[in-house]
Amino acid sequence: MKVLHVRRAALALSAAVVLPLALTACSSDSKDSASGPTASSAKASDPAASASADDSMSMDKPFGPGCATVPKSGAGSFDGMAKDPVATAASHNPALSTLVTAVKKAGLVDTLNNAQNITVFAPTNDAFAKIPKADLDKLLADKAALTKVLTYHVVGEKATPKQLENGSFTTLEKGKLTTSGSDMSYTVNDSSKVVCGNVPTANATVYIVDTVLMPPK
User: Measured on CA atoms in the order 69, 178, 101, 62, is the torsion positive or negative?
Assistant: First the structure.
């Protein structure tokens, strides 16, 4: 009987030691497995991180309401224009036909096509239409004045949307132009709005604007 009591006591003592250890191990495993998915889920669902990534991606692409008029395929599409130098690329965009005519009249096609890493603020046909017809005809007939106006739209560096938030740039005309805005909504010289921005060409970044920029007199 004594032997039996000793054996039972030994078994009880062993169980008392093993059980807490088993519970501790289970508790540790449970914490590890819970913390893993929870942490990763929180990271994946972090709205700030997601928004930041989306903003970064969107700023690498053309943006603005005017981009809807750009052809979806062919030489005038974003992919097509990216393969050509800027004057050639603009000639494939129907909304820039007046600008292309002006560039040809000023003899600036080769100048723009051969320049490297430039930014062009490109007025649409509607932008030129804001100028009274008599004044526009006079400008198009005056090569020196036309060259001055057109080169005022060109900056000798590739400007990113971030730089446009509060920017000041020296143009090829040697004048200054300023930019302001954020969240893919930008204005040049407080008067001309970017309607389709960050358009890539082989040698330039293009911001299509809704008003012709006039150099300071």
Answer: negative
Going by C-alpha positions, the residue among 143, 136, 69 that lies closest to residue 107 is 143
Of 128, 131, 176, 171, the residue nearest 151 (C-alpha): 171
> pLDDT tens-digit profile of 182-201?
999 999 999 999 999 999 99
| H/E element, 163 | helix 161-164
pLDDT tens column, 164-181? 999 999 999 999 999 999
CA distance 148 to 160: 24
Report how far apart, in Å, the C-alpha atoms of 69 and of each of 79, 95, 96, 183, 184 are.
Answer: 14, 8, 11, 21, 17
pTM of the model: 0.74
205: which residues sit within 8 A by CB, 6+ positions away?
Answer: 118, 119, 120, 158, 159, 160, 198, 199
d(CA 196, CA 207): 6
Question: For residue 68, how many C-alpha atoms fall within 13 Å in the half-sphere facing its CB?
Answer: 3
pLDDT at 91: 97
